[in-house]
Amino acid sequence: MLRVNATDIVVNSVKEALQRGKLHVGDRLPKEADMAKELGVGRSSLREGMKILAAYGVIESRQGEGTFVVDHCARNFSEFLGFFPSQENRMPFLELRRVIELGNILTIYDKVTEEDFVVLDKLVRVFDEKHPEKDYVEADKQFHAYLLELTKNPMLIQISRLLENMRTELLWKLFEHEEIIEDARIAHRRILEALRSKNRVACVEAVLQHLDTTAQRVILISQDKDI
Questions:
Q1: Which of 28, 46, 81, 90 suits a disulfide with 36, CB 3.0-4.6 Å?
Q2: pTM, whole model, 2 decimals?
Q3: Residue 145: what pLDDT?
Q4: CA–CA separation, 60 vs 90, rounded Å?
């Protein structure tokens, strides 16, 4: 029989509690002494397990508050792999985004409800008026994140989160330009109209046009040319 060491017991117990829904993001873990007693491990083993879980991005300790369940797995893994915002990573990021968003739209094109459209339309309307740049960045991120969440595919959602920092950095760079804010308004509205029609081809064409326009803008920005 394979022997499981005390540190593994700690890591596995938290992982299984998350999988079974006994623990959720935001929950505070028991005190160190109580948790060690409950799991039947020593405090040193418990601390080693906590270090591993923190490195995974599953928990974080907050001074004076305790240890909490978090969801930083995608962020930590992304940084470990070197998925950093940089000019060199922009085009590979857009190519990966094309794969994800085309697959996404093909999955959800006929499943969007009226309640979903209310949420999406509110996000698109941000681009109809003058706002601080951060509002455009947040609205764009939420729009595409919402479409991904409609797949109800946790793996796809986590893969998208790996790219969160790169997406945010690029959006800040893009939305320095009024023309690109207008691009986003038109593109997002076109995607919504295609989704309302439940027309598979129209949805794919709307997403492709949006991504192609974005790629062209990124090339110009990277070459320091006027848009």
A1: 46
A2: 0.69
A3: 93
A4: 30
Cα 28 to Cα 162: distance, rounded to the nearest angstrom: 25
Contact of 227 with 217, CB cutoff 8 Å: yes
Return the residue matching tokens 């505070």. 28
Q: What are phi and psi of 140, to 5 degrees?
A: -65, -45
Helices (H), the chain: 6-19, 32-39, 43-56, 73-81, 87-108, 114-125, 133-149, 154-162, 164-174, 178-197, 200-222
User: Between the CA of residue 221 and those of 89, 166, 169, 174, what are the distances in Å?
Assistant: 14, 16, 13, 8
Dihedrals phi, psi of 94, to nearest 5 degrees? -65, -35
| Tokens read off for 71 | 């969801």
pLDDT digits (tens, 9 = 90+) for 142-187: 999 999 999 999 888 878 877 787 888 889 999 999 999 999 999 9
Sequential DSSP letters for 147-159:
HHHTTT-HHHHHH
